[in-house]
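Q: what sequence does this backbone want?
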C-alpha cells in the first residue's frame, strides 16, 4: 500500500511512537473513577500492523496486576480458541472498552465506557483494522448498537465504515457457562470463514 519500504518504515515507527505516547497518557489518566482504584492501566497488546482488532470489556484482576491485556484465565482460553481456528497472534491487536480494572470485576458503567472511548478511537485510527472481533455484550453494545444482544446476535456479520465486525461470547462467559461453548465455536468458524472470504489476512 505504501509507496516505498522507507516510507513504510517511517509510518511504522510513527505508529510505535504514537502508541507509546498513548500508553503514557493512559498511565496518568483519571478521567473516570476506575483510574483511582486500578493497579495498572491496560492499553492493549499486539501488532500495530494487525488487520484484526479484538475488543473485550475491560482488564480483569490478573491484567490489573500484570498491566498486560488478556493474560488471565479468559485470555488463556482466548489463546486456545485462536490457535484452534489458526489465527496467528501476529495478525492481531487486543484491547478493551475500558483500560482500567473495574473493582470486584463489575461491568464498567456507561459513564466509564464513555470516558475511555477516545483511547479506543485513537487505537482504531493508528491500527486501522479491516476486522473487529467483539467479545461480549459490553463491546458489541458500545461499538455496534446499544440494543445489541449477545444471545440473539452473536456470530452475525456487521459492517461499519468499511470495517467488518463480528460479535461473539466473551471467553470469561464461556468459563462461567460451558453450555455456551458450542455456539461460540460456530461463531469462530464464521469468523475464520469471513477472514478467508474477505481476504482479511
Ligand atoms: Fe482513564 Fe479509561 Fe482508566 Fe477511566 S478507565 S481512568 S477513562 S484510562
Ligand atoms: N477480559 C477482558 O475483557 N479483557 C482482558 O484484557 C482480560 C479479560
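A:
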Amino acid at each position: 500500500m505504501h509507496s516505498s519500504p522507507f516510507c513504510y518504515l517511517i509510518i511504522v515507527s510513527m505508529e510505535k511512537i504514537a502508541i507509546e505516547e498513548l500508553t503514557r497518557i493512559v498511565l496518568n489518566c483519571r478521567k473516570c473513577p476506575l483510574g483511582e482504584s486500578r493497579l495498572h492501566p491496560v492499553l492493549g497488546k499486539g501488532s500495530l500492523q494487525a488487520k484484526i482488532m479484538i475488543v473485550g470489556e475491560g482488564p480483569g484482576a490478573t491484567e490489573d496486576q500484570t498491566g498486560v491485556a488478556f493474560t488471565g484465565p479468559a485470555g488463556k482460553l482466548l489463546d486456545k480458541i485462536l490457535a484452534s481456528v489458526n489465527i496467528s497472534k501476529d495478525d492481531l491487536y487486543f484491547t478493551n472498552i475500558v483500560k482500567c480494572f473495574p473493582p470486584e470485576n463489575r461491568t464498567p458503567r456507561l459513564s466509564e465506557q464513555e470516558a475511555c472511548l477516545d483511547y479506543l478511537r485513537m487505537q482504531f485510527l493508528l491500527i486501522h483494522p479491516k476486522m473487529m472481533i467483539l467479545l461480549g455484550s459490553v463491546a458489541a453494545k458500545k461499538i455496534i448498537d446499544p440494543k445489541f444482544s449477545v444471545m440473539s446476535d452473536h456470530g452475525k456479520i456487521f459492517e461499519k465504515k468499511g470495517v467488518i465486525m463480528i460479535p461473539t461470547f466473551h471467553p470469561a462467559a464461556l468459563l462461567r457457562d460451558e453450555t455456551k461453548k458450542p455456539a461460540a465455536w460456530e461463531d469462530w468458524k464464521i469468523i475464520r470463514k469471513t477472514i478467508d472470504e474477505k481476504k482479511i489476512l
